[in-house]
Design goal:
70% of the residues lie in helices and 0% in strands. By secondary structure, the protein is mainly alpha-helical.
């Protein structure tokens, strides 16, 4: 009798494989691999986060937001997830939702220069000039290499 050798990958192996595909720009393939990981272990917020990032890269922003919300249900203080969720909302022109998501990213990581910068940019778009300039100044003070911007 022959012994069957299992070819089943672990959730971690699927996650790692998906991350490689993501780094190479193969977003659909990465999404599939992250989903395989989720099918095995649906309690890892990082997997949902990375799946969302890949969905966002191919303009599946509503799907990305769902992935981010699942990640946040597992880890509500995951600042990078709030940041990416804000970016997806921004891409959908949902500016108030974007600001709220960037607010949360900043709440959980006050030195998050990119979140300050992006929140300022959204505020500029909706006409909150002073607040935008304040956020940009904060981003710059935190070390973000941004040009001198003026919100006109």
């Amino acid at each position: 009798a022959s012994v069957a050798v299992s070819q089943d990958l672990t959730a971690k192996q699927w996650l790692d494989s998906g991350y490689v595909a993501y780094q190479q720009g193969f977003y659909e393939e990465a999404i599939d691999k992250f989903q395989q990981s989720i099918d095995i272990d649906n309690q890892n917020p990082e997997t949902y986060y990375l799946k969302g990032v890949c969905q966002s890269q191919i303009n599946l922003n509503l799907a990305a937001i769902k992935s981010y919300e699942k990640a946040l249900s597992l880890d509500p203080e995951y600042a990078e997830v709030h940041f990416e969720k804000g970016y997806s909302y921004f891409s959908l022109n949902q500016f108030q939702n974007a600001i709220q998501a960037f607010d949360k990213a900043i709440d959980y990581r006050p030195n998050y220069a990119e979140a300050w910068f992006n929140r300022g940019s959204v505020k500029c778009i909706i006409g909150e000039k002073e607040a935008a300039m304040d956020d940009w100044a904060r981003a710059k003070a935190l070390g973000a290499s941004i040009p001198n911007l003026d919100c006109e």
